[in-house]
Design a protein that fits this description.
Helix content: under 10%
Number of strands: 16
Order of helices and strands: EEEEEEEEHHEEEEEEEE
Number of domains: 2
Largest sheet: 8 strands, antiparallel, barrel
Strand order of the largest sheet: 1-2-3-4-5-6-7-8
Shape: globular
Number of helices: 2
Radius of gyration: 16 Å
Strand content: over 45%
Distance between the termini: 33 Å
């Protein structure tokens, strides 16, 4: 499943072609890369590619699928443009603004761990749920400070793309 990743003013087309543990074969703008990616305990990503080592910290912004990426010397604005985001952009809607009080998965997968319960007071950027999809685990973070209204999934659940996982008040 290919996605577009916007880094600053550049848009890259990225496709996961294969995975064996931390070793990924990805295609970026038609070029095949073999990378070793590890999500470290402190939330950063350690990436080895072509004999080079990169450490990147992704900090969620106020809008879904938007991040600030920090490297040792630089900072980048990053946006993931997957099927859900492309659909919303094509419709010309501001659906993300109204969806900020909901966390949903753009693709089918399996719930690895839910970290919040109904009634919890939460803060922006706090991890709410981890989903496994396409042999990769993704953390879904709280988009704003608030209170958990409803948790629609539990550990081990199989989910559909677009399914609402957690709702905020």
């Amino acid at each position: 499943m290919a996605i577009e990743i916007k880094v600053g003013d550049r848009i890259a087309w990225v496709d996961l072609r294969g995975q064996d543990g931390n070793l990924l074969e990805i295609e970026v703008d038609g070029k095949i890369l073999k990378v070793d990616v590890m999500h470290t305990a402190d939330g950063t990503f350690s990436i080895l590619e072509g004999g080079h080592s990169y450490n990147i910290e992704l900090v969620p912004r106020n809008q879904p699928k938007k991040y600030t990426a920090y490297t040792l010397y630089q900072e980048f604005e990053v946006e993931i443009i997957d099927a859900e985001a492309r659909y919303l952009l094509d419709r010309g809607t501001n659906a993300f603004a109204s969806a900020e009080k909901k966390i949903s998965s753009p693709m089918p997968g399996k719930v690895v761990k839910v970290f919040v319960t109904e009634g919890d007071e939460v803060t922006e950027g706090q991890t709410a749920v981890v989903i496994s999809a396409m042999k990769m685990e993704s953390e879904y973070k709280i988009p704003m400070d608030g209170k958990i209204k409803k948790v629609n999934v539990k550990d081990g659940d199989t989910i559909e793309g677009g399914q609402i996982l957690i709702e905020l008040e």
